[in-house]
Design a protein that fits this description.
Alpha-D-Glucose-1,6-Bisphosphate, Chain A, domain 4; about 500 residues; about 20% strand; alpha/beta; Rossmann fold; 2 domains
């Protein structure tokens, strides 16, 4: 890493260099390519470089990917050296749970100190819009604390405060879309009458890029929002109209606590209760721009709410979603299968299809494509998972055919992907243990051999009991999944002789 950083700062490339944290997340993943198009060199600080492997911009000469953790001050300083500005786009609601507030303060303080020591000229932070003073939700209070921590050294900070960001794949937009799509009648807390000033994600990105060329934005706190101010109830009406749905009946009641609201959001939408609760708490705060400094310093015509919703729905319909809220999910280390009992369900088949065709079929599982067979059982498992606090199936998938490392796929996450050869999914559903589902493909003769391996490491007796309870269903679900993959790859079912070293479910077809 040191050699690459030194080369970047050696003057060989005179384009200004900026550091971006959170490049695997929703905003950061969209910001980096726009910075590159604007003529900047971008150094992305990430925990896992593999999560960016599928992004086209990540392999270009203007992007540098550095693996480092904010908990390592020396690596952080090294990564920052030679950069003019640093974007701080990190929030830990998904990874730190109830302790996210203290964790975010600590990370921001470390980041500010490293920026000062590395000679960073400015920090740019995207925070939350809201009233100041007492009565802020814990979520918005945390954003204010991060602002203060980032400003704790002599490095000036540009703070952008935004309310709901409307864009395909954003958490706020997904909550709104699912509520309107699934609930013709809604019993809601009083926050439906709270005013908000949403902003399109493309307008947020515009301000984040253009501020680099506006010196008067340095050290300023800038509220950003679209031209429309409306209540959440009115916002739901606009969404229903855009989705060609009938106007939703909304019944406000005073008794729904933030906890109950978050559980309701969790059950109806793909959003985890860990994210839903702080967001639900924040809905009680009026989030409207208190100043127009951003519009004055960086004139720009923002999209209205209906235009922003139409643009987001269009991206979703055509499967052109750039990034999603779930992209930023943590990637835990591979489970330690050594030690303790691990249950393994391994099934093989020979298929008269090419490796490429077979791998493409494997990568289509989940989301709207389903699991080829037993979809009712998968849906039931997803419903049960939602009721116990898991993600269920509603996260879906970003693209109907393409997968990349670190991406969420229903209640799975992609933890390994090797083009044409291997896909591994780690379960994020609630389980009394650790589970993965792996597909491996190797060529054989005129076709291929597909091996599907489910591994489960139980946690205590509850885990063992769970495995034996679901094991009888594996024959239906896993055999059907294998045959569905083969059929999608263009193979037809006909028995073949199994090689002596494989215990195979055999599927064949035309060579």
């Amino acid at each position: 890493m040191d050699e690459r950083v030194a080369a970047e700062g050696s003057g060989e490339d005179d384009r200004p260099c900026v550091l971006v944290t959170g490049a695997t997340g929703y905003i950061g993943g969209r910001l980096v390519p726009r910075l590159i198009r604007a003529g900047y060199r971008v150094r992305c600080l990430v925990r896992s470089a593999r999560k960016l492997a599928a992004r086209q911009w990540a392999n270009g000469p203007a992007a540098e990917i550095i693996e480092a953790d904010l908990g390592d001050p020396e690596k952080l300083r090294q990564a920052m050296r030679g950069c003019d500005a640093a974007y701080y786009l990190i929030h830990s609601m998904m990874s730190a749970g109830a302790n996210y507030r203290a964790h975010d303060r600590l990370l921001a303080t470390r980041f500010a100190k490293a920026a000062h020591q590395a000679g960073i000229r400015r920090i740019i932070y995207l925070g939350g819009l809201g009233e100041t003073g007492e009565g802020l939700s814990e979520h918005l209070t945390s954003r204010r604390e991060v602002e203060a921590a980032l400003a704790s050294t002599r490095v000036p900070v540009t703070v952008f405060r935004a309310a709901m960001i409307i864009g395909s794949g954003s958490a706020s937009f997904e909550i709104l879309r699912y509520l309107v799509e699934r609930l013709p009648v809604m019993v809601t807390p009083r926050w439906v009458s709270t005013q908000c000033q949403p902003i399109a994600v493309r307008d947020v990105l515009h301000y984040l890029v253009v501020c680099l060329e506006q010196p008067e934005s340095i050290g300023r706190t800038l509220d950003i929002g679209g031209p429309d101010v409306l209540t959440y109830r009115e916002l739901m009406d606009v969404m229903a109209e855009a989705m060609k749905q009938k106007k939703r009946i909304v019944i406000p009641v005073p008794v729904l606590t933030p906890r109950l609201s978050s559980l309701w959001i969790h059950l109806v939408t793909p959003i985890s209760h860990r994210i839903a609760r702080p967001l639900a708490e924040g809905l009680r705060n009026r989030v409207v721009c208190r100043n127009e400094d951003a519009a004055r310093l960086m004139p720009h015509e923002c999209l209205g709410v209906r235009e922003a919703i139409d643009a987001a729905l269009g991206r979703f319909t055509t499967s052109e979603v750039e990034t999603t809220w779930s992209d930023a999910g943590p990637i835990p280390g591979d489970p330690d299968w050594a030690g303790g009992r691990t249950f393994v369900d391994r099934r093989c088949m020979r298929v008269s299809a090419s490796q490429a065709a077979l791998f493409a079929a494997v990568c289509r599982i989940g989301g709207r494509n389903g699991y080829y067979t037993g979809d009712g059982l998968w849906r039931l498992r997803g419903i049960l998972d939602r009721f116990v606090g898991g993600p269920g199936l509603r996260r879906g998938r970003r693209h109907p055919e393409k997968l990349s490392f670190g991406e969420a796929l229903d209640f799975w996450r992609v933890t390994a992907i090797e083009e044409g050869r291997r896909l591994e999914l780690r379960a994020e559903m609630w389980l009394p243990g650790e589970a993965t589902l792996e597909f491996e493909i190797r060529p054989e003769g005129n076709g291929s051999v597909l091996t599907q391996t489910a591994r489960f490491k139980p946690h205590g007796l509850a885990g063992v009991a769970y495995w034996y309870a679901v094991a009888p269903l594996h024959g239906i679900v896993f055999n059907g999944l294998l045959r569905g993959i083969a059929g999608t790859a263009g193979a037809t079912a006909s028995p073949l002789d199994a090689p002596p070293d494989l215990s195979c479910t055999l599927v064949g077809g035309r060579p």
